[in-house]
Specification:
The complex is a heterotetramer, with two copies of chain A (160 residues) and two copies of chain B (80 residues). In chain A, the strands form two sheets. Chain A has a four-stranded mixed beta sheet with strand order 1-4-6-2, with helices on one face. Chain A has 160 residues and is of the alpha+beta class. In chain A, 44% of the residues are buried. The model of chain B has no long low-confidence stretch (mean pLDDT 93). Chain B is globular, with a radius of gyration of 12 Å. A five-stranded mixed beta sheet of chain B has the order 2-1-7-4-5. Chain B has a two-stranded antiparallel sheet with strand order 3-6. Chain B has 80 residues and is an alpha+beta fold. The termini of chain B are far apart. Chain B is 24% helix and 31% strand. The chains are: A alpha+beta (160), B alpha+beta (80). Chains in contact: A-B, A-C, C-D. Chains A and C meet through α1, β2 and α3 of A and α1, β2 and α3 of C. β2 of chain A pairs antiparallel with β2 of chain C.
Chain lengths: 160, 80, 160, 80
């Protein structure tokens, strides 16, 4: 299990290629989620993204959920990298990679880690838009990873 | 003393990232720490979506805080 | 939509980095499955893997399922690369990458593509083991991506 | 003439990758092509798990084959 909380950019495949070979021996495959900064949000163009985090608690939460994934799914190992600080559109924000013998477990665990990370890891995003900066607010629809349109207060937005 | 930290929009509302509070012996609840912090800062923080952590772990507002603990208040997380 | 059926090895992240930027504009993330040659099977060590395919039909099937994924899920684009020929343990066999605005669609579509690819794309694996070569037979348990142990004829094996 | 291709274990059993068969006017079914191919090759191919394609598309054994078509027989696929 590897957890990295860092300001620097990362190269997802270089990180996977550098993963300790012994830790993922026997893997038949991997599932990787890579989250990037979009250049638009519900209401505005995004010029940049500032990510604040809670040093110490962030790493602890990511370790906790990684251990939980390892208990619940038949996976071999997992990697989480999450950035903080100033990010530009298209920059990588987060990656979660899971190795397993059978692919179902890797899909399940990767999705689980992303879902739980979004509700428990102490990161907060602030969007820099032409109209100013604003904190991204928790959106239950986004949180569920919904691909349907959904709305929420206080911004009462809809994802199309 | 307990170490109280604020993050993101909560930090901006209160104007500082951390304060230190003396608490009564025997401990207080997280909700009581919040009330003490609001009095200290002169800023209301009651918010339906406020979350709390004690010693780096998520807790409810009924959780108990002991002298020496680190308590944090922050809005719902938005990472990922 | 990009489909590659090739003998050469590939670098998953280089392939994703090289993906036409316009095709994936607006993506908030990607889900990537990478399948590799394991060095063991149910019954033996694997020295190498030979993959046969049906030129023409393979590409057509992969295009068909990619179009089906695009119809069924709210995704932005997808990439499938599958190798044939002689592969060594740890070699990449297949990658499926899906870009979407919201991650749920990318997870769903990537999993769908792998599931359907395994039952419809005309590839056949032959394992080279110390005891000789043998065709890998279709395993419903593997096909379902089951993480539970399962058995099937004719090899009547169990994945632990 | 129709072009009949064999893949993987089916190809190995029949000994060649492809044969050409003359078919009656008006077309035949995939099942009939299989019977003709078995006769030509002198090798039984009946197999509960045999799959077929016509002109690069999966078909059932009841599918119709016309002169000029490409027909393929193969075991369940095992890619991915």
């Amino acid at each position: 299990m590897i957890i990295k909380v860092q300001q620097e950019d990362f190269e997802p495949m270089a990180e996977m290629a550098a993963y300790p070979v012994d830790a993922i021996a026997g893997a038949g495959g991997s599932v990787t989620f890579i989250g990037t900064v979009r250049d638009y949000s519900e209401a505005a163009d995004i010029l940049a993204m500032e990510i604040e985090h809670y040093p110490g608690m962030t790493e602890r939460e990511l370790e906790r959920i990684s251990a939980e994934a390892a208990r619940h799914y038949d996976i071999i190992d997992s990697l989480i990298i999450h950035r903080y600080g100033h990010l530009a559109p298209q920059d990588n924000i987060v990656m979660v990679a899971v190795w397993s013998r059978h692919r179902a477990a890797a899909f399940d665990a990767c999705r689980f880690l992303m879902d739980v990370l979004k509700t428990s890891a102490p990161f907060w995003k602030k969007e820099v838009t032409p109209a100013g900066v604003r904190w991204v607010t928790d959106c239950p629809g986004c949180r569920a990873g919904s691909r349907e349109g959904h709305t929420h207060a206080p911004y009462s937005h809809t994802h199309s | 003393m307990i170490h109280v930290k604020f993050f993101a929009s909560v930090r901006e509302r209160i104007g500082v990232g951390e304060i230190f509070l003396a608490v009564p012996e025997g401990g207080v609840t997280v909700a009581e720490v919040l009330a003490l912090a609001e009095g200290e800062a002169g800023v209301p923080l009651q918010d339906a979506h406020l979350l709390a952590a004690v010693n780096l772990q998520h807790v409810s507002f009924a959780g108990v805080v002991q002298d020496g603990d680190e308590v944090a208040f922050f809005p719902p997380v938005t990472g990922g």
